[in-house]
């Protein structure tokens, strides 16, 4: 209660300032007034968001009813500052202002969910409560056995989905998770859609999908995503057919060689990343293994060692090391004190240019090593643009932030890099090892693209009112079949809502990255464009998939200069700064995997 009270006093002061700053009834074109407004906003915005983000962190790392209430209260408490800033920003005629001032004021006016509080603060509180509750349902979800033992998602259910070859056990975990989480979140999500759309319409958008797509600052972004999907579809179909044939040897008649794949046998709870089925689908089992998990264990690596290894990767490029608060305050392993937490990896910027953290239930495993580099990529982006005005503290578009994490993982996963850091004892790779490596990479890169594209199509249909609540589940699985070639292992009912058993659907906080960024298919394409550009800067020769830009200051400078822009420039300018071109393309991605077509 003391925290909330202090915040409200602070926001009241902000409101008084803004009201005094602009008292004219007409739009103001006074540049000095606008500069004063932006300066005041910059000086106080961290005081608003830091307590809000801190309360959310406390909830995600300790899911209790008390922390839920504190998180919602802190979220609602920020509305006074945000709305007053929006109202005052709206009173400027920016037509004669510099492009930079126009951009800053436009971002301040884009207040997302807070637009709902402009007309009805109670509705905003309801929306904040719904979002937090859906996340709580996800974080505390369990599936219970007949003997009363209940298994959380991580590590227990995820272990089943990654390792078990027992069809019935996989169905039990798959269905149980959706019964526990998806069904609980279904009524909440229906209200969420209504309230989100109301907020979007208040802000001047047709619906939430329209609002989210607008963040890409492009009239062709939908067509661009569709084109990228079509460009990678032939390769995906080949991978799908290969995986079907391999999984048929394990699950027999459960897999139809001429049809879709069951969702429960693809390596994780959602069939999103296929990497965990690599052992089953490996093309050349006798070739040198490209999974260094055994080496990590044998060499006695700890979780801290893995994070330090990642930190040294960034500093080898001349980029910034993780600051001390990162090491002091991050949650790098699953707590052992009985707390319930959301284990899904995420990177956090606490909006004060000092405090950056990762939340992750890390284990000593190669896939976690790659995830560490990915999440640290987000933090590196945060660090690079920290000196920009606060409104520019984000990626050039939603896909850029995710792409930066992706390029780090691409370089680290190469046999060349693993050899350099002592995790792979190999002189050079042969054909079979290369194909194994590319197939392993394709499971998580190519395998996830139609899945990502499909989710966006479903959400746009839901927000646009083209898919009604009674058809949510039917359309979800129809799209999964048509776009992904995946079906549920058991029949789904109208009371199910499998979409909301996926964290990326229910995450909706303004200061958290879209863990599943809009148009993830754009992320993958952009990441390979960045990767190729950095490889060129590092003077790499030979196939793209063999490039490791570790220790290349030239590659690091190229990337760092782009990261430092934040979102101060439209994304085509940021794209041009690192790649020399202004458009997204699947060509580098297809070049990377072209050996799989031979």
Textual characterization of the structure:
- With 598 residues, the protein is mostly helical.
- Among the domains are: 2-109; 136-204 and 220-285 and 459-498, no CATH class.
- It has helices spanning 2-21, 31-60, 65-77, 79-89, 99-109, 115-119, 121-140, 153-163, 167-202, 208-214, 221-251, 278-281, 293-298, 303-316, 324-329, 366-384, 398-412, 415-420, 431-445, 449-463, 472-484, 503-506, 520-537, 553-563, 571-579, 587-592, and strands at residues 142-144, 150-152, 261-262, 346-349, 356-359, 486-487.
- The protein has a two-stranded antiparallel ribbon with strand order 1-2.
- The longest helix is centred in the first third of the chain and has 36 residues, at 167-202.
- The chain is globular.
Keywords:
mainly alpha; 60% helix; globular; 6 strands; single chain; 26 helices; 598 residues; disordered N terminus; two-stranded parallel ribbon; two-stranded antiparallel ribbon
Secondary structure: elements and pairs:
Blueprint: H1 2-21, H2 31-60, H3 65-77, H4 79-89, H5 99-109, H6 115-119, H7 121-140, E1 142-144, E2 150-152, H8 153-163, H9 167-202, H10 208-214, H11 221-251, E3 261-262, H12 278-281, H13 293-298, H14 303-316, H15 324-329, E4 346-349, E5 356-359, H16 366-384, H17 398-412, H18 415-420, H19 431-445, H20 449-463, H21 472-484, E6 486-487, H22 503-506, H23 520-537, H24 553-563, H25 571-579, H26 587-592
Helix pairs in contact: 1-2, 1-3, 1-4, 2-3, 2-4, 3-7, 4-5, 7-9, 8-9, 14-16, 16-17, 17-23, 20-21, 23-24, 24-25
